[in-house]
Amino acid sequence: MAKRATARDVAEQAGVSKWTVIRAFTPGASITESSRAKVMAVAEKLNYRPNLLARSLATNLTHQVAVLVDDFENPYKLSFLERLTLELQSEGLVAVLININEHFDHVHALLNADQRQLDAVIMCGTAFRTEMLQDVRLDGAAPMFVLARDSQIPGVPAINCDTTLAIKDLCRHLHEKGYRRPGFMAGPKTLSTALGRRRAFKAFWKAHGITEMPELAAHHYSAASGAEAVRRYLNEVSPAGRVDVLLCENDVLAFGAMDVIRSEFGLKVPADIAVAGFDNTLFAAAPAYDLTTYEQPVEAMVKAAVAMILGREPKKTVTMPGRLVVRGSA
User: Fold this and answer.
1) Residue ranges of domains in the chain, CATH in brackets
2) Residues in domain HTH lacI-type (predicted)?
3) What is the C-alpha to C-alpha distance for residues 254 and 281, in angstroms, rounded to an integer?
4) Is the pTM of this model over 0.85?
């Protein structure tokens, strides 16, 4: 194999110091344009590229960010990860995607990220718990951020959608449409990532004189879990006592619920039971679902998180408004 060109090789041919070569490849470094141009011309001739590993040892920065995900069954995650990785890469950062599962939990992931000296950790899942993460917080460890979820972890900022405003907008629309027997389908219960959607939902309807609100429990954020939850509910409750509108904690649960409502029980959406979701995923607009939902401000949340990682903004919890998307399901 041909020997790989080094910064010293470029410096010798360009007639500059090694540190001038390093500055030429460092954004914002102090160097004249003529020196930069000379270095770049020789670098191109020698096919030289900076050694990022060596640079990380010198700067104590790896320009790598761990992204922890534990709910890959949720289709919302694909578009979300696309936006996140695009923003990281545009800033010269690389995402290290870590699949959290029964064999590799959040504790292992955080310890692993610390050993690899990653610059930051972004948690995009639902199953991490306050007490579990506090046990592995290390002095000097990479800063952690919770993205698109609430956080009750001291010192860990969350960048998320304004839950109270979102649910109020959804419920106000449903109330104006005349629905008076609301039900809520919740995903798996967690501690540090409690979404607060259930709480805001109950508060709205209670303020409007409605206190009986059935809660359907889904064990996972998946269409299969949404289907199972609504199937169990419809089998147990007589037609006269059923809800007239079901708000699901996210779109994928709503997809599963709608499939069962129509295909297994022969009911119509929204004539018999209206359904609404949350996230405005790709399939929400498909004619098969035509789902009323709420869109999170993904791009703004991602930009805010990356700005905090880069030190351009103070590390603090931020909530942002999204938008209600009304379609035919409710």
Assistant:
1) 7-50 (1.10.260.40), 61-160+298-320 (3.40.50.2300), 163-295 (3.40.50.2300)
2) 5-59
3) 11
4) no
